[in-house]
Amino acid sequence: MTGRVRTATAAAAVVLVLAAVSATSACGHDHQASARKTASTNAAKPAVTIDVFAASSLTEAFTELGRMFEASRRGVTVRFNFGGSSALAQQVNDGAPADVFASADATTMAKVVDAGHAKGAPSVFARNRLSIVVAAGNPKAVEGLADLAKPGMVVVLCAPEVPCGSLANATLANAGVKVQPKSLEANVKAVVTKVALGEADAGIVYETDVKAGGPKVAGVAVEGADDPSRQAAYAIVQVVGAAHPDEARQWVDYVTSSSEARSVLAGFGLGSP
Amino acid sequence: MRTRAGSAVVIVAAAVGGLVFVVPVAGLVWRAPWWGLWASLSSSAAREALRLSVVCSLWATAVCVMVGLPLAWVLARVPFPGRRLVRALVLVPLVLPPVVGGVALLLAFGRRGLAGVYLDRWFGITLPFTTAGSALAEAFVALPFLVLTAESAFRSADRRLEEAARTLGAGPWTVFRRVTLPLAAPALGAGAVLAWARALGEFGATITFAGNSPGRTTTIPIQVYLLLESGDVSGAIALSLVLLGVAVAVLAVLRDRWVGGWSSSP
User: ipTM, 2 decimals?
Assistant: First the structure.
């Protein structure tokens, strides 16, 4: 019994000492941090977290923009939910707690608008052009869409159910090229993976995906990719019933109209609207 | 008094546990497009996906039995260095995210994969984007279920019966076929059924390794995913219900008939 008491006392003493040490060290050198803390408290604004549901092709660009946005507005945190545009639209329409929704195409955005979950009209803030993706060095010497129809060429496309698939089909039809794809992948990244691993010789994806694909893949320009009707139009909108409408609107404004956002988006291969 | 409170807690926890299974299914049934169900299911894409799902999952189960049973027997009966490591490796498909499993399969059996290069060069076989590839991906993910159940069955089988058979002059193969296998049969059946059920619902590894090629690799889970992507929620629910119906029917029948020792109800 006495042994246990003694252990307990010893433990308490250790805790006290540790607490004292950490307290003094905090006072000692973290001067800046405590100063910062006071500043943010003085702003008298409670911490706010906004939930942004965004198409997965925006992952890299939005993550960076989120960091910059948070740095310029103390107390605001941007939390992302990245996924396929359709799945996200479904979640928003089913009442998921989103403040902002950003889709990779107009059709999906229309679903949220039609369901009455968009506050105001969505604005297009970026465009993505199609590109042929091939292995680095272009071993099969692909020069354009027509080469995808060559015998022995293993081509994978996005499924027609996802935006990149329907855009690719429209572009191929417009060019009069008939391709027999080996696989209709569920998303763009899967097409890039198949090409990067050498399972496929070529695929049709977005320019951003070629850029994000790293040194293992290269892009070949697609004829007619400059036609805006054959580009993915990224749209963003504030969701009705957002928990933090003011901050949500600020984020939408930041993405659509700041020059900072424009240059970050361009850096990831996204064209201006 | 205390025990009564204790048993109440157990019953409440059990009810919550049951609800975890029941509520999502109820959600599907609630949102199901009952009037348009037949239209959704009679489309050629749906029927093709159903056929492929059945074919691939049966092939996957066959592969699991053919390689999984011997592996389980060796793990249970043959002491060898590194047995613990092999036992741990068998669990890899369980803990690996299925999509990563699919990438691993590509790196192994893809056109440029570790073994795939030789399959292609020597036999002209490429597995990705083929039905065989789908079955392989499903088998990879389902294998642990069979091996784990079979191994514990082989280990818990009464060794004295085997020794008795051997003293009566039976060879090792006869002992295995006439004594060990019948003793382990109920558990082996359960393992095969679990593996089949896992294969039937497999999505991530299959779509990553075998892609989505209508009529060749588009199984029901993949078709459901694509329907959701295109916003056709009712079509997706209709197909999911078929998968659910098939699985529940088969499991209910097998559990009573074939897998006698599995349930062992009082």
Answer: 0.77
